[in-house]
Design goal:
Length: 310
């Protein structure tokens, strides 16, 4: 395994399968009480174009629990891409801080920040991918199911940034990933092809379907996300119509394995993509999943910034 120290994380595929496992193993050790005040004197800049609950709090707490400091930069303060170009922001921040976590509308913005910053850049969400969420999800599945290989994951809904990162991450670890989306709302063919190659190398599989029931049948994990992500509010009515029949309700969960878990990256819209009986029911692990954002990001920050951890 290559050392992660000093590296960017823009896509889950910036990590090898062994490195994904190393992040999860480190997260488990930190979560289970291993002390690691390894980032004393280090500072993280949170550079956000979008508001956030889980991303901001989990990164801030993670950095402070590791002994470092964190600086939050709100959209009005920086004016990323308006008041200042991403390239100029990156070149300035790289002289002040040790790592940047950016939450942006466009994936190209994160790429530009990484191109010009002299410090590591972490994609804390873009329209292309959400690798930090995928790491937390894979940690949660490992905790709940004890393994990845042979585990089937059904994603019901929009082929968005979360779906892309999770599909690629699950494929790298040998899981069987099935996604059900309405026509014209699925994951792009090139991403599916890439994930299929990764899965085949580890004994897993990837399938893109239209039928939620076909995707969920026998699944160990059922996952959904909002139908209209931030920045897509103008499509909300159109998407409500397109995703009719894609709600994860009790009847759909009954198609999964009896011990299946339900996952959602939050925020959730009860009565739209998920029924309250599911997200608030006994199979739901969504709040443990949310907690794992903290532990996965602690591991990631420690491995990127500290020496000799892993």
């Amino acid at each position: 395994m290559q050392e992660l120290r000093g590296r960017d994380l823009l896509s889950i595929c910036d990590l090898s399968p062994d490195e994904v496992q190393a992040v999860v193993e480190t997260a488990l050790r930190l979560k289970n009480g291993e002390s690691a005040s390894v980032l004393a004197g280090k500072t993280l800049a949170l550079l956000f174009e979008k508001p956030s609950l889980r991303t901001r709090v989990s990164f801030e707490v993670a950095m402070r629990q590791l002994g470092g400091d964190c600086l939050y930069l709100s959209p009005p303060e920086v004016g990323l891409g308006g008041r200042e170009t991403p390239a100029d922001v990156a070149r300035v921040l790289g002289r002040y801080v040790d790592v940047i976590a950016a939450r942006t509308f466009k994936h190209e913005t994160v790429e530009e920040l990484a191109r010009y910053a002299d410090v590591p850049v972490i994609n804390a969400l873009s329209d292309g991918e959400h690798p930090c969420q995928a790491l937390a999800d894979l940690l949660t599945i490992r905790e709940k199911k004890g393994r990845w290989q042979g585990i089937s994951l059904a994603f019901v809904g929009d082929g968005n940034n979360v779906a892309r990162s999770l599909m690629l991450g699950a494929a790298m670890l040998g899981m069987d990933f099935r996604i059900a989306s309405p026509r014209d709302y699925g994951v792009e063919p090139d991403v599916i092809t890439k994930a299929g190659v990764l899965a085949a190398a580890r004994g897993g599989s990837v399938a893109s379907l239209e039928s939620p029931r076909e995707a969920v049948r026998g699944a160990d994990v059922v996952y959904t996300d909002v139908w209209a992500s931030m920045g897509q509010e103008h499509e909300a009515v159109q998407r409500l119509e397109a995703f009719a029949g894609y709600q994860v309700d009790g009847a759909l969960m009954a198609e999964a394995a009896p011990d299946a878990i339900f996952m959602h990256d939050l925020p959730a819209h009860r009565g739209e993509e998920v029924a309250a009986e599911v997200i608030d029911g006994p199979q739901s692990v969504v709040f443990e999943q949310a907690e794992n954002r903290l532990h996965a990001q602690k591991a990631l920050l420690a491995l990127i910034l500290a020496e000799g951890l892993g």
